[in-house]
């Protein structure tokens, strides 16, 4: 009888460990995503990035033969 109680407790604790993220993990993940988003917005608003995109789009016809 003791074995079955112990086995059930172990199984229950293993299931609990695999249930998903806790609140603190969500907070860290959200903070990381917002940080990356902010960096991408700043890069997208910079002059050199706009020039880079413009140059790439202007050179596409030169890169594809037959256009």
Count of helix runs: 3
Structural class: mainly alpha
The global form is elongated
Average of pLDDT: 82
Largest sheet: none
User: Which band does the percent of strand residues land in?
Assistant: under 5%
Task: Write the element-wise H/E pattern from the N-terminal end onward.
Answer: HHH
The gyration radius over C-alpha positions equals: 26 Å
The percent of residues in helical segments reads: over 70%
Task: Give the tally of β-strands.
Answer: 0
Low-confidence stretches: none
Q: Span between N and C termini?
A: 79 Å
Short characterization:
Helix content is 84%, strand content 0%.
Give descriptors for this structure.
67 residues, mainly alpha, elongated
Describe how the helices and strands are arranged.
Elements: H1 2-17, H2 23-45, H3 47-63
Describe the structure.
This protein has 67 residues and is mostly helical. It has helices spanning 2-17, 23-45, 47-63. The longest helix has 23 residues, at 23-45. The relative contact order is 0.05. The mean pLDDT is 82.
């Amino acid at each position: 009888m003791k074995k079955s109680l112990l086995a059930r407790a172990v199984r229950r604790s293993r299931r609990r460990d695999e249930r998903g993220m806790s609140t603190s993990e969500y907070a860290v993940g959200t903070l990381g995503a917002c940080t990356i988003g902010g960096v991408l917005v700043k890069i997208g608003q910079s002059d050199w990035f706009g020039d880079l995109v413009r140059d790439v789009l202007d050179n596409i016809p030169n890169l594809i033969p037959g256009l």
